[in-house]
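To assess whether the prediction recovers the assembly geometry, we first specified each molecular entity separately, as shown.
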Amino acid sequence: MVNRERLAETFKFLAEIDSISKEEGMLAGKIREILVIMGAETSVDNAGERIGGDTGNLIAKFKGNAKVPPLLLNAHMDTVEPGRGVTAVLKNGTFTSDGTTILGADDKSAIAILLETLYVLKEKELTHGPLEVVFSVCEEIGLLGAKHLDFSMVTAAYGFAVDATDTEGIVTRAPSANHLEFEIHGKDAHAGAAPEKGINAIALAAKAIAGLELGRIDEETTCNIGIIEGGIATNIVPNLVKVKGEARSHNDEKLNKVTDGIVSSFKRVIAEYKGKGSSDDLPRVDIRIEKDFSRTDIPADHPVVALATQAAENLGRRMKTKISGGGADANVFFEKGIFTGVLGTGMRDMHTVRESVNLDDMARTVELLIEIIRLHSQAGAG
Ligand SMILES: [Zn+2]
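The predicted structure of the complete assembly is given in tokenized form:
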């Protein structure tokens, strides 16, 4: 049923349109044209204005002809750098870039898969329920598109995001994450003439970080300090250091514990310094903790898992539930009460110039989705 040439053409077409985060407008316009021709009711929400991008999220609805609850389908439109002027090269059944940019299979392989699925539904006049397809913006820069999605436009209670590698897996668990920022304020002074008048913010930050347990804390918890910025010149005692990090866990209690541990290490170092008789309000640490995304935890007996598992079985394939260490739009959907499993496209080495995706894998995911949609059209019927 899958038209491989069309799938390959669609992917190449999409991959070669620039769509760095906040600049997805051109791509969204092209996808919308295709969807309208297919008979979708399309709209673009106001997320673009709210996050400073040139388009919002694109939402397409297909009414279908089976009286079942709507199904959500999702892929993101934005790509990372270096992602301008991509040339998609198909060789021995695998797409890569020309080696100077990413390919953008993350997540355009998924967009091509969703469009091919919709082509087939229409072409073969297959019975299907209502479909709500969300093409989101700015997934790569903190799930901003999904976070600002106009959820009044989505009525589905469950569905599938297509934004992973494994074509025989469905991600049902993903961690919560906290974003952490610390600004240590010390006091500047001439490092040679009067160092005793200064408070070295770099030294304080170093002390606070050195006392931390970083990396993998346990099987479901990680944390990292990823950015440190500060200092102006070697002859100035630095008065400001900014430290940024994150913590993730599948268990919210553990997430809070790790976050608290990092926060207290910074506070302790400041307090110890002050204990030695610091005169004014310095040194000081300003702390900002933000919830980056909350966890996903779809029960094994949820219809989303059952649909994917049964569909794979009908096609003679396997389907495993998987745990992800990262955040995706699906986390945001889950937080909003939409149980969203994440399926794979076969894409590999994402966010590198070696990124690739195999056409066979993409075709397999189209077949899987068609079977999922077929099963879904029968599920609530009658
Ligand atoms: Zn992605």
